[in-house]
Amino acid sequence: MRCSMRCFTLSVLAVAVVWLGGCGPGTKPTGTGRAKTSTAKDDHGKKDDHGKKDDHKGHDPKDLKLPTTFKEGVAQLEELQKKVHHAIEDNKLDHVPEAAKGMQLVANKMKELAQKDVPEDQRVEAGRLCNEIASSYEPMDKAADDKKKDEVEKLHKKVGDAIDKLKALTK
């Protein structure tokens, strides 16, 4: 009994010290309290580092809202494809990776949406086309980083053909 009373008293004392000594005036919380699980450096969002060689991560498009229907996804892919086209036309290949990453994210979501929005006999083809578009991100990103405009154009055309075929599935 005596040992359990000591343990209880020490536990209460430890909690009181943490509670009273925690965030008081002059201290601010530094985040959510969750530990960062990745050891990868994540500073790609800085404006001054775009265009530098990186590990092909961090090109997540700003303000991208994933589609809720397959048809909406096709429209988003077309818009992102236009961004790639304009970047190639304007010789601004550093703008390609963000749009290509958006296409990857949208195409991956569309595989899920195809299960409810595409006729059963066309789902396999829809999934194949979505995979083709999604898998084009890394080669397009690398080609853009390496300033290989011809390679970016070739991938752009391949993705455009796949988008046209997806659009035909929505009719």
CATH class division of the domain at 67-169: Mainly Alpha
CATH topology of the domain at 67-169: Four Helix Bundle (Hemerythrin (Met), subunit A)
Structural class: mainly alpha
Shape: flat
- Largest sheet descriptor: none
Mean pLDDT comes to 79
> What's the tally of helices?
6
Helix content: 55-70%
> What is the first-to-last residue Cα distance?
77 Å
- What integer value in Å does the Rg equal? 25 Å
Number of strands: 0
Residue fraction in strands? under 5%
- The residue ranges in which pLDDT falls below 50 over 5 or more consecutive positions are 23-58
Order of helices and strands: HHHHHH
Q: Architecture of the domain at 67-169, CATH level 2?
A: Up-down Bundle
Brief summary:
With 171 residues, the chain is mostly helical. It is built from 6 helices and no strands.
Describe it for me?
The protein is mostly helical. The chain has a domain at 67-169: Four Helix Bundle (Hemerythrin (Met), subunit A), CATH 1.20.120. 61% of the residues lie in helices and 0% in strands. It has 6 helices and no strands. Helix 4 runs antiparallel to helix 6 (149-169) and helix 5 packs antiparallel against helix 6. It starts with a helix and ends with a helix.
